[in-house]
Structures are given as C-alpha cells and as structure tokens.
Amino acid sequence: DIFESASYNGILTGYDVAICTLGVGEPSKVSREDFVNIDKTAVLTFANACKAAGVRHFELLSSVGIDAKSRSFFLRTKGELVNDLKALGFERLSIFQPSMILTPTNRYGLSQAITLAVWPRLSPLFFAGLRQFRGIRVEDLGSAMARNAMNSGSGVEMLRWDDFTRLNAGL
C-alpha 6: how far from its chain's center? Predict the structure, then answer.
C-alpha cells in the first residue's frame, strides 16, 4: 500500500539510496485529488519511510519547470513536493527534471503518438537555456539516475537535460 508507511517496514533498512519514479503517467486523465494523492502524498509517505530507515540519498523523478509558486497546478504540486522533501533533511536529494520522456512504445493514444514522432525532431532546435526542454529516451534517463546514485555528493541538486547527458558520458 503506497499510502501506508508501515508497508515499507523492514524492506528499506540497509539501503543508502532510494529512487522514486512514482507518479501518474497522464495527469490529465485523473482528478486533481488523485494526482495529489499519487504524485505528492504517496511520494512523501515513501520518502518519510526512507528517512526513518536511514536512507541518506533520495532521488526523485519530477519535471522540468516545477515551482511551488507556479500558476500551473501540475508544476505547483511538484514544486511543493520538492519543498516537502527538502524539509525531510536527506543528506543528498537529487531532483531529476526531464522535459519529454521518450518511450519506445505509445501507451496513451494519439497525442502521445504525435509527441513521440515529433519531439525527437524538435529537440535539436532547443539550444542555450532551452536545452532543458530536449526530450530524453527513458532508458537514458534511467541510466543517468542509476549513475547519479553511484556518485557521492551532498545537498540538494536539480538535474536537467545537460546533467543527464553529462552523467551518461561518465563525466
């Protein structure tokens, strides 16, 4: 039960790093309440259980543009979550902020099919400050998250497209 911290009892002990990719795949298909319950409440339940079990490094898959003061409900909720995670005081908190995650298969219908076909062609047009909006293949994002978990560090880090590329290049 992702909403019950006791569900994690005994399975988090002994780990230094936790990676959380929990979230609604297509937020427009659920109510705001369900979105908050999954993308914020359930993540905080997991994070609190991780903190209690002694996890020192927490990685979260989030989104580019998150901001607790955003006018966008989606971005504001994700920004509030990051603020709540910071308050937990992990030794290291890594927030991954991809733009478009490019998957090998279409799971959500016509709009995703169009996005998966068009975004890779648009990505090279995003340069300078817009590079953060480049799409990333899901396997490359996963690799960057795994590589980051193996690196040492402390504090809060916000990672975007250039950081994913750097991690996957082994730099």
Answer: 23
